[in-house]
Amino acid sequence: xxxxxxxxxxxxxxxxxxxxxxxxxxxxxxxxxxxxxxxxxxxxxxxxxxxxxxxxxxxxxxxxxxxxxxxxxxxxxxxxxxxxxxxxxxxxxxxxxxxxxxxxxxxxxxxxxxxxxxxxxxxxxxxxxxxxxxxxxxxxxxxxxxxxxxxxxxxxxxxxxxxxxxxxxxxxxxxxxxxxxxxxxxxx
Length: 188
What we know:
By secondary structure, the protein is α/β, with parallel strands linked by helices. The chain is 30% helix and 30% strand.
């Protein structure tokens, strides 16, 4: 059975965006990119919410083509173009993009069916609305939280709409040179 993994940058007070919906406060560097790069190596399916998909699809298809592209941009662009993508949206329909499927109805059942298929892991980068749906239905197997050294006070919370207790086990923690702390939890 495939595992569903959520990767999310959050503030120390648990927000995924600030009060204006911005993520400009996120601290990233090559060290963090190299560390998290394993996620794409072990995943052949990505799930995005509509907003995150539109942001990703505006950048990643050609990010690696720039002659000055970073190692991360080249590697992630190649993965993004190859991987199967599921977009959760009630308002956006099939755009005809290769390797991209849109679902808007009966999302928990469709994600459960995808988890039961043969294949590598399923990864979710960002997409707080989609993550909330997955949390509500207890479909996430691994939580990778990248806690940024900032207090936002308001914004989109990471933990929302949880309707049950979910026991977790700390698998790994890592402190990065930019002050971000990476925490990997899995369902106990």
